[in-house]
Design brief:
DNA-binding, four-stranded antiparallel beta sheet, homodimer, 2 domains, Arc Repressor Mutant, subunit A, 8 helices
Chain lengths: ~230, ~230
DNA sequence: CGGGTTTTTGACTCTTTTCAATACAGGTGG
DNA sequence: CCACCTGTATTGAAAAGAGTCAAAAACCCG
């Protein structure tokens, strides 16, 4: 069955009272998703909301003319597919398992229930969405004001922060990520990303590889990203 | 004093009980802002949250290297400056009055109060932030996948929707907006915006002018924006 | 009627994309 | 176990879209 400890430990449910947690556990269903599987499809009726327990998801959107775009990466502990909280009835994107992953799902109706009776959960969720809004604005500002190299640097730094594993002085991105993926996160082409990363390799900033990215000099990347005023 | 009807009518406060509304009214302070004034400054300690009663604000951010960027336009009835809901203690941007404007302000602490005791307000706020997140993702997708003309078209369509006034078959943007402004909303330069709009004028899509924009053919713009699959 | 701001337009430059070809890695099946 | 095949990555050359630089025109306010 589902591990109560596990659910209890999720930051998003912090402060929920015991009875609410019980109800939550009673209705949760655990699912496994093999690498490459989708949890649900963009445009589908939003019937459930989810928490990622293990693994890593890429949330992708496809535009009217077929171009692809990565909205975000879902990391363990993250809530996703909460379309209702956005006042939508359909999922806006498609989460794809970048590695074998495990999720918990609840019927969307439960969300309203919990929200109504647990101000704390409502506030938690609001702040979580708020932080995501903040992050989205950061990306928008980048896309507006920076050129490609800076945007790619930012994307890589973000990946390092949320999905980076330290090994020695290096940080490895903990899931398979292609040049194409990075291009779809930064609004450029895989060719340009490849060129940029190759160039960074010669400068010793990163080490690349097939679906692999290792950051060797985070500070150097930050300098390129132009965060700190020079 | 402050008009209770007015506050009561704000969608964001829908469903608030009488006592909460009383408290709200007791702590509200009304302020006027002449065209060009700022309500607060980016980076300032976030002491209050606001509702725009009348007028129109442009929320601007300045990057480390001095470039400017317009995050959004605040329209009457909109909540803004709710940094706390995003888990921030400082304002992320600077709201500038595009026309003479009137705001209501509350001490930030009140927000927590109301949130704690009024699940409905928490849910309203959450959904409002959620919609803004959705909108931000739309813009991100645009910035990633579309070229400048499409992005400018989108920006103009959005302006028409949220700040457009119909006069006959035309829609006029209801506040002074420069080419520079549009450039800062779409991540391009005023020169490019000027060229694009001039070109649109010759095609009869819009009518321009100094700090003025009138949409003559919204459907035509939508086609340019590439929303509908051709 | 100035004087400053905003807009338009042209010519040139440069970053990034597009097009194209090759190299490489890893899994599959003979 | 090796050859093959597919998806990924690299790299070069050409093309294009948008930015930069520069100057003039239009407009509004006082």
């Amino acid at each position: 069955m589902i591990d109560r400890e596990l659910v209890d430990a999720l930051p998003i449910f912090h402060g929920l009272d015991a009875s609410a947690l019980d109800k939550l556990l009673a209705h949760a269903s655990q699912r496994s998703h093999a690498k490459g599987d989708t949890v649900f499809q963009q445009g589908e009726e939003a019937t459930h909301f989810y928490v990622l327990l293990r693994g890593r998801l890429k949330v992708q959107q496809v535009t009217a003319d077929g171009q692809q775009f990565i909205v975000r990466v879902v990391n363990p502990g993250d809530l996703f597919g909460f379309a209702m909280a956005l006042g939508r009835t359909q999922y806006p994107g498609t989460p794809i398992a970048a590695v074998d992953s495990v999720t918990l799902a609840w019927p969307m109706g439960m969300m309203n229930d919990i929200l109504q009776h647990n101000p704390t959960f409502a506030i938690n969720t609001m702040q979580m969405i708020g932080q995501r809004l903040d992050a989205a604005h950061d990306r928008l500002r980048e896309m507006s004001t920076q050129e490609v190299e800076g945007r790619v640097a930012h994307a890589v730094i973000r990946l390092a922060q949320e999905a980076g594993v330290k090994s020695g002085s290096e940080i490895r991105i903990d899931f398979p990520i292609s040049r194409q993926d990075i291009a779809e996160m930064t609004g450029t082409t895989l060719h340009t990303v490849s060129r940029i990363i190759s160039h960074w390799e010669t400068k010793g900033l990163v080490k690349g590889g097939r679906q692999l990215l290792v950051i060797a000099d985070l500070a150097g990347l930050r300098r390129l990203a132009g965060d700190e005023a020079s």
